[in-house]
Amino acid sequence: MSTTETSASGVGPVEGASLYSVDNPAPVIEPPRKRTKKTPKSTRGNFELAAWLFMRLSGVVLVVLVIGHLLIQLVLDGGVSKIGFAFVAGRWASPFWQVWDLAMLWLAMLHGANGLRTVINDYAERPNTRLWLKGLLYTATVFTILLGTLVIFTFDPNIR
Amino acid sequence: MPAGTLYRGREGMWSWVAHRVTGVLIFFFLFVHVLDTALVRVSPQAYDDVVATYKTPIVALLEYGLVAAILFHALNGLRVIAVDFWIKGARYQKQMLWTVVAVWIVLMLGAIYPVLGHAARELFGS
Ligand code: HEM
Ligand code: HEM
């Protein structure tokens, strides 16, 4: 068995003595995540951070909006039994409740959709499944937000 | 998802599972709810017909379940926010979870009469 050539390791035959010197520099190993000309200025986008923060901020506001809504619809003034077209007409006659419902619609839909995005990312492993599930989710979300907004703004108490 | 695992977490894992399940359920409810509310643009008749189903005893039970889901998700959501933003949040996460469960039970007991009362009157007579 011949003596093992250790020149590639950088540690010389005499322990501790470097093989490299100013005249014989070590080979440059490119760092795996080195920035190149094509790398964007910041490789760390802030979308996930913004989404994380949005879940918490919208959550705090939704506590008030949704629990208030449930109290009005299910508990106060006779509970569900009172709900009907006339009841809704009375509520949406006030800009206050229009704005309340509008904020609740947007915040709850965006909060829920972003939450579902996380759930899809967690469980759908095949890229194609993810693509389709997210496409379906975003379509349903945009549709629901637009429909709900339209309904609040175009509500007509005198419809037939 | 990996098929079958022996890993069983503690309270923290189960509260996370419950938070996720309730969140998804509420989202699906909201989707249907915006559709049924949109019937006010069709006709008062159409809206009142659909809302009538909301007043039946079986749906009253579903409403009680919805209230349970929302209250848990809301209370536990506040706990998650406290764990993230309060310096001592992580240290007290377990105590906060049991507080969430206690408040949830009290609120659910309080909701029985308002949410289910009309169904009981319908089933068992005035
Ligand atoms: C079973 C329980 C519920 C009942 C009986 C109920 C009832 C109603 C009624 C009568 C309206 C018409 C407008 C108004 O009166 O404000 C409405 C609108 C609305 N509700 Fe609920 N609600 C319930 C649960 C929820 C929950 C849990 C959420 C949120 C997660 C929610 C979100 C909304 C939104 C966003 C609107 C506006 C819809 C639109 O823009 O067309 N509701 N609800
Ligand atoms: C009532 C007030 C609410 C509060 C305080 C709240 C709070 C939160 C928080 C803090 C998270 C993030 C959890 C994490 O990052 O681990 C979250 C996740 C989520 N929320 Fe809410 N939320 C509320 C209402 C809603 C509503 C109305 C919906 C449905 C439309 C919803 C659906 C979801 C979903 C699907 C997730 C993702 C769950 C997961 O990733 O495991 N939440 N919520």
Automatic annotation (TrEMBL), chain A:
Where is this gene product found? Membrane
The UniProt keywords, alphabetically, are:
Heme, Iron, Membrane, Metal-binding, Transmembrane, Transmembrane helix
Key word ATP-binding present in the record? no
Q: Where is this region: Disordered?
A: 1-41
Q: Which InterPro entries match?
A: SQR/QFR_C/D (IPR034804), SuccDH_FuR_B_TM-su (IPR000701)
Q: Where are the transmembrane segments?
A: 49-76, 96-116, 136-155
Give a Pfam family name: Sdh_cyt
Give the protein's recorded name.
Succinate dehydrogenase hydrophobic membrane anchor subunit
Taxonomic source organism = Streptomyces erythrogriseus
